[in-house]
């Protein structure tokens, strides 16, 4: 059965390029990006893992741990990472799970038979420190993921977890946000002292409160 938003992300033990890990132990207290790759030595995934490695500082400052999943064995992962580091001018130092038995892929419903009976689709799971699934994305094999969008979503998730706000379309860190309808207008000045704008009774904006 597929996992949905708000579900608890299941735990697993796995062999990875940094050693054996227990998913819960490894990610304790952190936000998590768990994303899958159809196979090693695939061109789009090579660019994706390289891009992720280059964004390490951005993930670190958001308290995010990144784990990648591929159904190929560990020895192939090691050779592939050498290629990624060489061709993408980076250093992949996050774990790449060797999911030969497809345990993780099946646990997280990463194999979609209509797309491929054996290979994972390009799934992305963002998981909070509370172990709850906050976002899922599924890309076709032909389309590389937008990791700046993944960072943007993490910024929104972390902001809205702490404040009664939502982020509008195309929102970027630093821009105004929307006060959620559950907050009465008369309470806005106290709760959001930076000011607010009433565009419509149901559409109230305020400067981003956590900066």
Automatic annotation (TrEMBL):
<comment type="similarity">
    <text>Belongs to the peroxiredoxin family. Prx6 subfamily.</text>
</comment>
<feature type="domain" description="Thioredoxin">
    <location>
        <begin position="3"/>
        <end position="159"/>
    </location>
</feature>
<dbReference type="InterPro" id="IPR036249">
    <property type="entry name" value="Thioredoxin-like_sf"/>
</dbReference>
<keyword id="KW-0676">Redox-active center</keyword>
<protein>
    <submittedName>
        <fullName>Alkyl hydroperoxide reductase subunit AhpC (Peroxiredoxin)</fullName>
    </submittedName>
</protein>
<feature type="active site" description="Cysteine sulfenic acid (-SOH) intermediate; for peroxidase activity">
    <location>
        <position position="45"/>
    </location>
</feature>
<dbReference type="Pfam" id="PF10417">
    <property type="entry name" value="1-cysPrx_C"/>
</dbReference>
<dbReference type="InterPro" id="IPR045020">
    <property type="entry name" value="PRX_1cys"/>
</dbReference>
<dbReference type="InterPro" id="IPR000866">
    <property type="entry name" value="AhpC/TSA"/>
</dbReference>
<keyword id="KW-0049">Antioxidant</keyword>
<dbReference type="InterPro" id="IPR019479">
    <property type="entry name" value="Peroxiredoxin_C"/>
</dbReference>
<dbReference type="InterPro" id="IPR024706">
    <property type="entry name" value="Peroxiredoxin_AhpC-typ"/>
</dbReference>
<dbReference type="GO" id="GO:0005829">
    <property type="term" value="C:cytosol"/>
</dbReference>
<comment type="similarity">
    <text>Belongs to the peroxiredoxin family. AhpC/Prx1 subfamily.</text>
</comment>
<dbReference type="GO" id="GO:0045454">
    <property type="term" value="P:cell redox homeostasis"/>
</dbReference>
<dbReference type="GO" id="GO:0051920">
    <property type="term" value="F:peroxiredoxin activity"/>
</dbReference>
<keyword id="KW-0575">Peroxidase</keyword>
<dbReference type="Pfam" id="PF00578">
    <property type="entry name" value="AhpC-TSA"/>
</dbReference>
<dbReference type="InterPro" id="IPR013766">
    <property type="entry name" value="Thioredoxin_domain"/>
</dbReference>
<keyword id="KW-0560">Oxidoreductase</keyword>
